[in-house]
Amino acid sequence: MKSTDNSLSTFGLVLLVAGQLLPQIDSSIVNVALDHIGHSLHTNDIGLILIVAVYGLSYAASIAIGGRLGERYGKKRLFLIGVIGFGFASIVCGFAYSLSSMLLGRLMQGLFGALLIPQILAIIHSSLCGERHSRAVGIYTSIGGLSFVLGQSLGGWLVSANLFDMGWRLTFFINIPVCIFVFFFGLRAIPESQTVETPQMDIDGIAIFTLLLSFILVPVSVGSNWPALWWLLIAVIPLGWTLYKLEVRKERLGQQPVFPPSLFKTPNFIVGASYLIGIAMTFPGYIFVTALTLQSKLDFTPLQSGNTFISMGLTFFFGSILSKRMSAKINNHRYYLIGIAFILVGFITTTSVMYWQGSHLQVWDLVIATGLVGFGNSCLVSSAFRTALENVKQRQASEASSVLNTVQQGCIPISAAIAGTIYTSSNGYGDVFAMSYALASLSVILLMVGAVSVKRVKTNKMRMDVA
Question: Which segments constitute the Major facilitator superfamily (MFS) profile domain (predicted)?
Answer without folding.
Answer: 12-458
